[in-house]
Design a protein that fits this description.
175 residues; Lipocalin; eight-stranded antiparallel β-barrel; 1 helix; 9 strands; 55% strand
Length: 175
């Protein structure tokens, strides 16, 4: 019997793939060759703004239920990134999934996830503990870690407690 059903994976990956976001071209350091701030340089966060298509691979190592084999799956998501005060907000969505919004602090071409943010859906919460995304041209690569916890239903509708550690690796390109 398959405990972690298709509906569960859709819900989980809609939440998990948030951190996989995407990037627009060029980030820069907001300085000129002399090391002085360029008056017309865009803030680094602006380089991340836009809509993206992402390929994600997530690995769940279960702590509950005991004996459950690790799960690895590749999924595609879409992401929208907006600028916030010196950082970015990323909203990610897998087709048919529920959107999740996470904040990142931006320094140059790196966006570090703000720790301890969670998205909850269908009784399962994903809490991101650390990770970062790096911008290179129009490609963003991300590596995020977190935990998964909550109550979930089997495909037959029987509830059970689920717990896991999460590692997510993603590659996104600007649409």
């Amino acid at each position: 019997m398959q405990i972690w059903g298709e509906r569960a994976l859709t819900v989980l990956w809609a939440v998990v793939c948030v951190g996989s976001g995407g990037v627009s071209s060029g980030c820069g350091s907001n300085s000129n060759d002399s090391g002085q701030a360029s008056p017309d340089a865009a803030p680094p966060a602006l380089a991340f703004v836009g809509d993206y298509s992402c390929s994600n691979t997530g690995m769940l190592t279960f702590t509950a239920p005991s004996g459950m084999a690790p799960l690895s799956e590749a999924v595609s998501t879409s992401a929208t990134i907006a600028e916030t005060d010196g950082g970015i907000t990323m909203t990610s969505l897998r087709e048919g999934g529920i959107p999740c919004v996470l904040n990142y602090a931006v320094t140059g071409s790196t966006a570090a996830i703000v720790s301890s943010q969670s998205c909850m859906t269908d009784g399962v919460s994903v809490t991101y503990t650390n990770g970062a995304a790096t911008l290179n041209g129009t490609t963003l690569t991300a590596n995020l870690q977190g935990t998964v916890a909550g109550m979930h239903d089997t495909d037959a509708g029987v509830p059970f407690a689920v717990g896991a550690t999460l590692t997510l690796v993603a590659s996104c390109t600007k649409d």
